[in-house]
Amino acid sequence: MPINVLGAVLLEGPQVIPGWELIKTYAPAVAVVGAIKYYFGGSSNIWERDMHGRVFMITGGTSGVGAQVAFQLASQGAQIVLLVRKVEDQWLIDYIEDMRERTNNFLIYAEECDLASLHSVRKFATKWLDNSPPRRLDGVVCCAAESIPPYKPRQVTTDGLERQMGVNYVSHFHLLTLLGPALRVQPPDRDVRVVLASCASQSLGELDLEDPLWQTRRYPTNKPLSVYGTSKLLLGLFAKEFQNQLDEYERKDKAPCNVRLVTANPGILRTPSTRRFLSLGSVWGLILYWILFPIWFIFLKSAYEGSQSIMYALSAKDLAKMQGAQHIQECRIVKSSRKELFDEELQKQYFQATEKKIEEVERQSAKQRAMNAPPKEKKDKKEKTGKEDVATNLSTSSIQEDVYTMPKTPEELEAKLNILRKDLASAATKKRKGKKA
Does 198 map to a domain? Predict the structure, then answer.
């Protein structure tokens, strides 16, 4: 049949093809749309790396691009540690079970590490470090991010930080600096990668050394993307400075630094975060988003397509030999257009300023927790006083009269037992005196 059709086309022309008029009319438009879709889909990672048995820690690994990265690494045999808000969540349990079945990899776990709470981050990092010998860690992938829609009021973390700055930048800064000892002690033959998800919106970032975390500056409700971009720009500055600190660290075995920090721009994606931003966080906006979905489908990447640059950052062998933190876009090493990313002195200043702010915020949060929670000393004192009061109120005569009835409280039981012990001791003493007489 195909041969006959081809022969007819050669002899009589393409007009013999069924539906030729429709094909001739719409094929050019379909081809153009397909070419545009292919172009905006971005590049694919061509590097392959043996991930079997490697341990990767992932933030934001339950949705969007982070979920795709987790799935691909798990499919290649890596052990995955998902950092999540709560581990006691039925949805999370089902999600992990589903991923284990789809990847045939049961080394997928979750640990509680709420990026909206510096205290939660510290507790997780302390738990991870409190292990001897040190736990294996081949990489940390930071994909978690908050993007507040326009015209929404300022939102804050549990520590009172602006939410985009707190989750996107401060918590990842805190997590990685706390995990610094775990990264430094990995064997020299282990190629450790730390990948920070970046964004083109960093070009909109506005730096202010007096207020690096946007605590006192007026929040721009009409353009929250500038705050989001600032958080991503600060993340890039942190990557540069932290890489320099890791390079300067002298290992006991005198081996060179085997940890590489990389910022990777996955592009603009069709993820829940983007959907929330484009829909302005409203129902009507969501309806409009779905009406315009064909446009988003053509021009925005899928989560899988966006994950390719991150997978490149985890897989490319060339990165292990390069000095300094690198920036990846479309599976290529590129240079950023922001001049701040080449100013080492500025990077140190923002690193130190952020460390100082985190210390202040943690101290304030600790005081607040102490005020909200009942002091242990008062609780112990109250319990002790209660026991003494019960013992005082229970007279010897009343207990002796009622010693064999069931006590109503533990304090009453203890008091009755003490009376019985005294009675037995007194009886034994009298018996010994009688024998002597």
Answer: yes
C-alpha 368/C-alpha 375 separation (Å) is 12
Burial 138-171 (b: 16+ CB within 10 A, else e): bbbbbbbbbbbbeeeeeeebbbebbbbbbbbbbb
**How many helices and strands, by DSSP H and E, does the chain display?**
17, 8
Give dist(CA 415, CA 386) in Å, integer: 13
**349 and 217 belong to one structural domain:** yes
Domain count, the chain: 3
List the Cα angle 227/210/59 in 5-degree steps.
40
- 110 and 178 housed in the same domain: yes
* pLDDT digits 0-9 by tens, 12-35: 666 666 776 787 788 888 888 889
Do 64 and 35 sit in the same domain of this protein? no
Q: What is the pLDDT of residues 297-339, one digit of tens each?
A: 999 999 999 999 999 999 999 888 888 899 999 999 999 888 9
Residue type, 395: S
With 80 as the cut, is the pLDDT of residue 424 above it? no
Range of the domain at 180: 55-367
Query: Dihedrals φ, ψ of 416, to 5°?
Result: -65, -40
In a domain, 45, yes or no: no
Please confirm, yes or no, whether 232 is among the known catalytic residues.
yes
Asked whether residue 36 falls in the same domain as residue 65, the answer is no
Q: What is the pLDDT of residues 266-293, one digit of tens each?
A: 999 999 989 999 999 899 999 999 999 9
Specify whether 351 is located in the same domain as 390.
Answer: no
Residue 59 is assigned to a structural domain of this protein: yes
Check 232, 301, 357, 416 and give the catalytic one: 232
What confidence tier does 163 reach under pLDDT thresholds 50, 70, 90? Answer: very high
Together in a domain, 33 and 100: no
Whether 146 and 33 map to the same domain: the answer is no
Whether 372 maps to a domain, the answer reads no
DSSP H stretches of helix in 263-375: 272-278, 283-291, 293-299, 303-315, 344-372
Decide if 122 contacts 178 (C-beta within 8 A).
yes
Order of strands, sheet of 332-334, starting from the edge strand that comes earlier in the sequence: 108-112, 79-84, 55-59, 139-142, 192-197, 259-265, 326-329, 332-334
